[in-house]
Amino acid sequence: MRKAVQLKTGMLEIEVRNSTIPLDDLCGFASRNNPKRGYLFVSKVLGKHYPVKPSVMRNIYSILGRSIADIEVDGPVVAVGMAETAIGFGQGVFERLRLLQPDKESLFIHTTRYNFDRRRALRFEEYHCHAPEHILYEPCDHDEKMLFYRARTLILLDDEISTGNTFVNLVTSFYNKNPNLRQVLLVTITNWIDDSKLIELIRRMPCAVHFVSILDGGFTFIPDKGFQFSSKCKSVGNGEMKDGCVKVNFGRFGCRNTPQVDLHGRIDDLRLSMEDKILVLGTGEFTYLPFKLAELLEEKGHNVFFQSTTRSPIIVDGDILCRIVFQDNYFDGIDNFVYNVCSEDYTRIILCYETCILPVEHDLIERLGAHPVFFG
């Protein structure tokens, strides 16, 4: 299958080689306010830039979790979700894998863009990104830290892979700290690497590599040289320590199981009606427990959708129909965004935070008429 998409920033030409789910069900397309990469694959199953039914997201986690379980994986296993887009996705796939292989030593942890007063395990760059620095902290639990440094399998989870450079940077840094590493699984919803780049990526890796995805394809992007990108958007934070506003480890410092939270009690407090059309919004890097809240609501029979806020600057174009700009909730003083959300589309919006306090400038609750739920 071939598809051409005209965007404000240029022409995106796509080829799908194989996929278990149709392309148009997996993603749409938009323009990114980033001259390094002017296009964006807008996932329709990730719950980041597009509202998604929780059951659709869970199906993606199940498909990829089963695919990983079919590979001969040596333990211990460390699974890493990539900030910020794939944190919830990574934790969902990991949770599915834990159900399929409960006896295997395994740990989930995700990268972050935030500084904490903790020891860093490694740092690496995502050069094309609006916020290039990724940090991976050492797990806070002693046994989990030992597992992290003796892992034989590293599972890297992201929504897509197009060049693989970020993965190579991460794996190389990890291997330098842990030469016991024997294999890497690159797990994505969509894999856009062509055969020549695939061979080069494998050559650059310090150990064996497996690829797991739902869609395999390729693309070319022809930039519109006349398009003027905005230079006003600041996506990098102030570098201050976030220990004061983020008190709980939801995966940033390692976890073997999903943190236990009384979701039923939170739902009872919301006093929702079965006639409500509900949107549950995660915020920034805090996405998986908000997704679990939305999933539980769907299981109870509610009409509910899920997505999250983001620091990613995207142009209203293609499958990005509208956006709300607001000050972030992590005290970085930068713009954050909600895409494809109009408050009149929902009768109830539930806004979920890991930050235990909010900046005065953060006015998203009022602008959406949302009900805030604090997990931190």
List the keywords:
376 residues; alpha/beta; 9 helices; 17 strands; 30% strand; globular
List the helices and strands and how they pair.
Blueprint: E1 2-7, E2 10-19, H1 23-26, E3 27-31, E4 39-43, H2 54-69, E5 77-81, H3 87-100, E6 106-110, E7 120-125, E8 133-137, H4 142-149, E9 153-161, H5 165-177, E10 183-191, H6 195-204, E11 208-223, H7 263-270, E12 277-282, H8 288-299, E13 303-308, E14 323-327, E15 335-339, E16 348-353, H9 364-368, E17 371-374
Parallel strand pairs: 5-6, 5-9, 9-10, 10-11, 12-13, 12-16, 16-17
Antiparallel strand pairs: 1-2, 2-11, 3-4, 7-8, 14-15
Commentary on this structure:
By secondary structure, this protein is of the alpha/beta class. It has a domain of 112 residues. The protein is 24% helix and 30% strand. The chain is built from 9 helices and 17 strands. The strands form 5 sheets. A 7-stranded mixed beta sheet has the order 1-2-11-10-9-5-6, with helices on both faces. A 4-stranded parallel beta sheet has the order 13-12-16-17, covered by helices on one side. Strand 1 and strand 2 form a beta hairpin. Helix 2 crosses helix 3 and helix 7 crosses helix 8. The termini are far apart. The mean pLDDT is 93.
